Amino acid sequence: MKKHLLALASLMFILLLAACGGGTEENKEENKEENTATETKEVIKIGMIPDQNAAELNRSMDDFAADLAEKTGFEVEYVPSVDYAALVTAFERGEIQLAWFGGLTGVQARNAVPEAEAIAQRPIDEKFKSVFIAQSDLDVSSLEDLKGKTFTFGSESSTSGHLMPRYFMTEAGVNPDQDLDGNPNYSGSHDKTYKLVESGAFQAGALNISVWEAAVAEGSVDPDKVKVFYTTPEYYDYNWTVNKMDEETKTKLTEAILSMKAGDNEVMDLLAAEQFIPTNNDNYKAIEEVARELKIIK
């Protein structure tokens, strides 16, 4: 009798272990699947050149990241950059997968990463312009009149705040490094440029036309203190550029950006954009040629 009871108890113990073991394996498998899903979820890190008010830009890009994540199903994270060069460096290192560049920084980034592609821009970026501004009571009406005046560009890496203004000044016979009153200043961003001229720190400067027009419309600059005296011819400028990546990811990002419209996210307001349109690397060859001519890139 005791032998029968012992055998029965042993059998029950074995069955209990088997049941527990089966449950453990099942849980392990479920956890493995969950971990795999987490590990394989695409993370896209995005950036933007800091050419405007930092707080407003960062808030807008966080909102853009959320919208892009919703449209693509990717996890999207905005990574701020301290200056233009830092964003280009992060892109080159593969730390940024998608960036809003100016014409020059886009060329620099794509030269550093040959597989990178410009994918989208605003309609205005096909025919962008810079404006030259001066203190309202200053007697200037042409680029030639800048000789002997104090002057500020934006960032050294800015297309609309430095590269193209320098090019048009040179074409007009004004050498920014020799003909001004002292060396030219570099403010770092477009909003700082008009504020420096408005404050009287510099007599004249050059900046992005869309930032200037937005500042006037919003009352951020006093037109009684600052005037536009020259607007440049058109050129290609800003663009969204994707880093080296697989075609499926690139397509999803491109389609999501091209589907955006006014009101979808705060970046559309920041950039005064109704939509984005397709672009490609070839559109920025003229920018690269000017940059090489001026020895800004080698």
TrEMBL record:
Pfam families: Phosphonate-bd. Keywords: Signal. Gene3D superfamilies: Periplasmic binding protein-like II. Residues 1-18 form the signal peptide. The keyword Transferase does not apply. The keyword Transport does not apply. InterPro entries: ABC_peri_PhnD-like (IPR030836), PhnD (IPR005770). It comes from the Bacteria. One of its GO terms (biological process) is transmembrane transport. GO terms for cellular component: ATP-binding cassette (ABC) transporter complex. Belongs to the phosphate/phosphite/phosphonate binding protein family. This is Phosphate ABC transporter substrate-binding protein.
